[in-house]
Amino acid sequence: MSAPHAQPALLPVATGRQVRDYLRTLLRGRRLLLAGTVAAMAAQSALALAGPVAIGRATQAVVDHRSSAALAGPVALLAAAALAAAATGWAATVLLARLVLPAIARLREDAVTTVVELPVDAVEAGGTGDLVSRVSGDVELVSDAASGALGSFVGSALAIVSALAGLAALDWRFAVAALPAVPIQAGTLRWYLRTSRPIYAAGRIADGRRASALLTGFTALPTLRALRLGASQQQRIGAASADSMEYEFRATRAATRFFGRLNLAEFTGLGAILLVAFLLVRSGQADVGAATTAALFFAGLFDPINALLGVFDSMQQAGAGLRRLVGITTVRPAAAPPDPDPGPDPGRRPPTEPSLAADDVRFGYGPGPDVLHGVSLRVEPGQRLAVVGTTGSGKSTLASLLAGLREPGAGSVTFGGAALTALDLPQRHIALVTQETHVFAGSVADNLRLGRPGAGDAEIRAALAAVGATAWVDALPDGAGTAIGGGGHPLTAGQAQQLALARVRLLDPSVVILDEATAEAGSDAARALDHAAAALVEGRSAVVVAHRFTQVVDADAIVVLEQGRVTAHGTHDQLRSAGGAYASLWRAWSQGRPADED
Amino acid sequence: MAAPVLTRGPRRTPARPATGPVPVGSSRQLLWGALRTRRRDLLAASVLYSTHQLGESMVPVVIGLTISHAVDHGSRASIGLWLGVLAADFVLLSMSYRFGARASMRAKQHTGHQVRMWLTDRVVGPAGGVSHPPGDLLSRASSDADRVGAYAGMFAIAVAAAVVLTAATAVLLSFSLLLGAVIVAGTAVLLVAQNSASRLLRRRSGTEQHQRARATTLAEDLVRGLRVLKGIGAQRNAADAYCRASRTAGAASLHATSSQATLASVGALLTGLYLTAITGLGGWLALDGRLDLGRLVAALGLAQFVIGPMRVLSGASAAYARALASAERVREVLASESAVQDAVQVQVQVQVQDAAQQQHTAVGRGGKGAGEIAFAGVALGGAADRAALRLEAVVPAGTMTGVVCGDPVAAARIPHLLAREHDPSSGTVLLDHVPIRDLPLDDLRARVLVSPHEAVLLPGTVADNLAALAAEPAAVERAAAAAFADQVVEAVPAGERTPVGDRGEALSGGQRQRVALARVLAAAPPVLVLHDPTTAVDAVTEAGIAARVGRLRQGLTTLVVTTSPAWLARCDQVVLLTPGGCRVAPHTALLGEDAYRELVAR
């Protein structure tokens, strides 16, 4: 509940300067490789000139009615050039890959590493769909371009340069004749970049919306059927799909107009060269062979120009993707202060059992009004604190603050006297489990090891046993090695949550915060989950946010939260006899339930 | 309700609804059926691309002729004439490309869109039965649909390649039978050699793609489960796992790239040597007087040109195979068997005039006395231990009835059966004495509205969701008040204009449940079926909701499957379902029974 605007605020997109700076740091210290790559590519493109030269000479031999021995030179030149071009081409591709691929790998790793450090607010506001499309779709686009389009882009650019140089070497007047094409091409390119860049950027966003509409529909099938909303969802999907299609059409219209103007440039240049050739041959200043070579040089430009501009599409898309990826890295929290003294081994319980305390904590989502108005509480080592309150009283917000997932607007949350904001990964000590579950693609054991990567099989089994999951895990086709999540073996929400609890067990934190962790699993698993939660809480500090009083009555202490304020504090018996909100909550809960304790 | 505005941006082509039967017989049928919907675009693109390619192939020919007829000491008039011919050729090739490319893009995009619509129409359709996981469906609806579309985009290019290759061959043969034959045969040999080399190396690129796909899946998974990971500070462990996968993928990419480099170099070498040979042969023929200068230049140009179309044609079969594989993945979903049969179709086939008649007279919308649900020996589930659970009860019209069942799996079956997610293995559910199996699905679901326990909110604002099923603002307001959803509106930052996020993730569990409840209450259906509607709501609010819903639903039928005493206390009667049989009595009366007390005490 965070997005303050009607349209979800997407994560930032980097500016051109930010992208350039980023790329510069990526390529730092690799200048030699860069130079080698450029040299190989330049050599390869220069060798492409051998063809027209040889053909021109052969033509001249025909014009001059020479003997067939005159062909030996051009043919040998062609063969040698073919060999050399193959060798330099190979070197260029391999060097470029060595230069670029590791850099791209670092970029995507950087992006993902940054994403996991994003504050939860930023993730919620931007929407998971946007992030997913960045770390998968955009990464693919950029990687594809790096291993394909980039090479032909640079290669074509160099080929164009060398063809122009070749033209000039032949006779400077040919190069001058080719010049009228240049302003047309330059103008066209500028126009195209200006026109198509926003189209591609918007198109990528439209694709994201399409994926989002599809996924929403596919994850809500029973609801869509029961509420007869299938047709309207189908309409949304259709609209989103048509929308992303429209951007493709716009891009095509721009691209075809672009190629049309380039055709004009081609004709202008070619016509001028033929005209100059006519004049030069007529006045005896050039022979027919040179004229042929010149015309072929220029015609040989069409392909690299088209290739250059053909991959411009993917280069631009990759550019848009790159800006979105680098954009992620720009939201890196200004100064994440890693604990100067790393303290206890993360994931291991600190030697002393510190207490967790909130002191006059205030918090509001974005520009919205405060949800918590000065909450103070304290969880002593080994104590179990229950938080009750009506829905919307701020319990979940408090839970996420206590786990250090959100920062208080004012006041502080401390663990063993240190502010959570000063600790690195406080959640390793204060673990939060909410009702949200996610099964990660991998085996059951992989899912648990996210809690502690080095855990051995015996520890995995012990954690499963502790949450009462041994029976059903053993019944899976491959036991704890069974692939779950993604396309793997499907689990119920209750089973997924049991695994989440087992994961925490393996992590072995000092404090566990359970935010209605057992509430939303279908009632089938609720009982098993309650047992699992009880086992997890045993022997450590715990904060339990619950509305089922079975989890509340025997807590060491209970705080009552009303509209973001702690209005009462005490044990069950104290609070019940004090009247007030707790008593009425208790009455509502116990009404109709058989009296069990008195 | 005004449809929520979901898309902004360009004016869009209206999404065409899937018309006519969807071709699901085979992947081939599906592929060609999809292409057939864009016949006109494909035809236009084929013709225009062919013209474009012919125009392109004529450029070297015109250059050659210009050189021999004009540059080589021709007249001023001749250079003017040939430049005019060149200009005409450029206009032809440029315009035909422009409109051909647009037609081809239309074919490509609309074909992909059509396949996507076929697929999603089946998936979100009323009959159910598609059991693929969402991520899998997403990849079928995006990549596979697009790949079928991409084939439509390739189609015209392949046709044009065939046309222009034929024409170029004819021209070359007319120049010189020997040179023409050598060029055509040589190009073919060249491509066969390259293709077989590339097949050897394709396996490496397969490994690379697999590694990259794995890294991508990991990244996606990590983002989707990020909140869970952050809750226990495990996000860096997951990121480390991603980085390892990324590095493996990077190494595989490097490996694959050097293979590709080798392949490309060998290809370039072969092509270079082939062109060398052609130049030598052509030059020799010309020196021998068997080929004039213009034709020599033109022939050498064409020899280079025909490599392109031939490559297109040789790659076309692989593209077709890829498109077929994608079409098959779409077809699998389209051909999924329905979970239930829609009575509309059954009636047409079996002509159950009787039942239809009865249903239309007895069940007219809002008809008096409508809304009685009867369960006649309905078996709840297939597992052996549940076979004993048989629901035998009547929910009288206009009552609020609770159903308490000790077996949660069996309890969850009750709303599913009423929503016809599936049909019972034995027994019958009747609505106003008509088996619900004989009612058209749409009619049944309009009259018996089931809100699944795991009801999902749809993207849009809170207001959009509240009003998703009802048009009348007053009804929406009453429903929101009854479900205490008005408190949700007050609690969220932008009130009822707050976006709920994907699947309502911007709201808490309790808030989601209340909005979902208000959504169905607003529709005021004759029969409303709820399943544990307030598990994530606190006790006071829950009691309030149960009371208000009871009042709002006065005179209408409401069935609540739950073990919550807050709801059961408000029910006119409660059905207690045990392996021993069904008991129907008021909540207070059942409280005297140990079995019941134990179930509702939790």
From TrEMBL, chain A:
SUPFAM superfamilies: ABC transporter transmembrane region (SSF90123), P-loop containing nucleoside triphosphate hydrolases (SSF52540). SMART domains: AAA (SM00382). The chain crosses the membrane at residues 32-55, 75-101, 149-168, 174-193, 262-281, 293-312. One of its GO terms (molecular function) is ATP binding. Its main location: membrane. It is a multi-pass membrane protein. This is ABC transporter ATP-binding protein. Keywords: ATP-binding, Membrane, Nucleotide-binding, Transmembrane, Transmembrane helix. It comes from Actinacidiphila epipremni. Residues 356-588 form the ABC transporter domain. Residues 35-317 form the ABC transmembrane type-1 domain. InterPro entries: AAA+_ATPase, ABC1_TM_dom, ABC1_TM_sf, ABC_transporter-like_ATP-bd, P-loop_NTPase, Type_1_exporter.
TrEMBL record, chain B:
Keywords: ATP-binding, Membrane, Nucleotide-binding, Transmembrane, Transmembrane helix. The chain crosses the membrane at residues 42-67, 79-99, 148-167, 173-193, 263-287. Residues 373-602 form the ABC transporter domain. Residues 1-22 are annotated as: Disordered. Its main location: membrane. Residues 43-322 form the ABC transmembrane type-1 domain. It is found in: Cell membrane. InterPro entries: ABC1_TM_dom, ABC1_TM_sf, ABC_transporter-like_ATP-bd, ABC_transporter-like_CS, P-loop_NTPase, Type_1_exporter. One of its GO terms (molecular function) is ATP binding. SUPFAM superfamilies: ABC transporter transmembrane region, P-loop containing nucleoside triphosphate hydrolases. Gene3D superfamilies: ABC transporter type 1, transmembrane domain, P-loop containing nucleotide triphosphate hydrolases. It is a multi-pass membrane protein. Pfam families: ABC_membrane, ABC_tran. This is ABC transporter ATP-binding protein. It comes from Actinacidiphila epipremni. The lineage of its organism: Bacteria, Bacillati, Actinomycetota, Actinomycetes, Kitasatosporales.
